[in-house]
Design goal:
Helix content: 55-70%
Largest sheet: none
Structural class: mainly alpha
Order of helices and strands: HHH
Number of helices: 3
Oligomer: single chain
Number of strands: 0
Length: about 80
């Protein structure tokens, strides 16, 4: 008998859809602005210059480089 995992891909999907719906909710945005003005939650932070896209691009480069090195013919 296999145990059901606590967190399935369907749960991740549902959580993502819920978060996206909250981001579009004007009442939730207004409440967040209100809490920010009161100082209860900090202002949004600036993202670092390196974004996940840059990380993925660098990771893809590393994978391609290592595959090329693996597939390279020996020199002698």
């Amino acid at each position: 008998m296999t145990a059901r995992p606590d967190f399935t891909p369907a749960d991740a999907d549902r959580a993502l859809r819920h978060a996206q719906r909250l981001q579009r909710d004007p009442a939730a945005q207004a409440y967040g602005d209100h809490l920010r003005r009161k100082g209860l939650i900090p202002a949004p932070v600036r993202l670092p210059a390196e974004t996940p896209y840059d990380e993925a691009k660098a990771g893809e480069f590393e994978v391609r480089r290592s595959m090329a090195m693996r597939n390279a013919r020996p020199c002698c």
